[in-house]
Amino acid sequence: MKQTKKYFKELEKIEDKFYKDLSKLEERMSKETGIDDIEFFWCDNYIVGIGNVSRTMKLIQRYNG
User: Fold this and answer.
1) What is the pTM of this model?
2) By the 8 A CB rule, do 42 and 48 touch?
3) CB 48 within 8 A of CB 41
4) How far is residue 31's CA from residue 14's CA, in Å, rounded to a whole number?
5) pLDDT tens per residue, range 24-65
6) What span, in angstroms and rounded, lies between the C-alpha atoms of 62 and 42?
7) Which residues sit opposite 46 in a β-bridge?
8) How far apart, in whole angstroms, are the C-alpha atoms of residue 52 and residue 30?
9) Which of 57, 61, 37 is nearest to 48 (CA)?
């Protein structure tokens, strides 16, 4: 178990960077589109599209068939 502990620490660093980068991208997307609460929409731990928190816009699917 001690041998694997370092991998969790490395994973945390990777996750932190990913979520910071994702947040920055959503902020940029918000500024460029003018939609305050726009975000990437997740389902089953996978980003499947773009929508907004207030659900006033139709979900833009990542893949359209």
Assistant:
1) 0.84
2) yes
3) yes
4) 26
5) 999 999 999 999 999 999 999 999 999 999 999 999 999 866
6) 11
7) 43
8) 10
9) 61
Q: DSSP class of residue 64?
A: -
Exposure class string for 4-27: b at 16+ Cβ within 10 A, else e: eeeeeeeeeeeeeeeeeeeeeeee
Amino acid identity of residue 15, one-letter, is: E
- How many other CB atoms sit within 10 Å of the CB of residue 38? 21
Close Cβ partners of 57 (under 8 Å, ≥ 6 residues apart): 35, 38, 51
Q: Is 35 exposed, middle or buried (0-12, 13-18, 19+ CB in 10 A)?
A: middle
| 62/50 Cα distance (integer angstroms) | 7
- What is the model's pLDDT at position 5? 92
